[in-house]
Design goal:
Layout: H1 20-26, H2 32-37, H3 49-62, H4 72-82, H5 86-102, H6 110-121
Protein name: ExeA family protein
Organism: Nonomuraea marmarensis
InterPro entries: ExeA_AAA_ATPase_DNA-bind, P-loop_NTPase
Length: 124
Amino acid sequence: MTNHELDSRQPFALLLLGQPTLRRMIKLGVLAALDQRISVRYPMAGMTTEETSSYIRHHLQLAGRQDPLFSDDAIALIHESARGKPRTVNNLAIQALLASFAAGKAIVDESAARSAVTEVISTE
């Protein structure tokens, strides 16, 4: 980004969207010039427990699953461990599905979710 030919006739707008990591990187001294040019910031909070539950169930419906696949305890643990962040919820839910499949279970329970948390959170 430069100021080359930027005036009222040639407006320029740039949207930066990203994870909290992007926000931390911009705050580094090396990127001070970019940080000074950002005029509006909006950090998004994580989902609530109800939103996480609805999010998981919605994705299961998109995949063709109509009946419950995750126990309430599993969803609560996934939400708490992910702090409501959708990407982490996805990763934990997928890992919990794999853990349940490997154990021969028809429902993702709290033990499968705990296994997923151990696997995913320790590697993030």
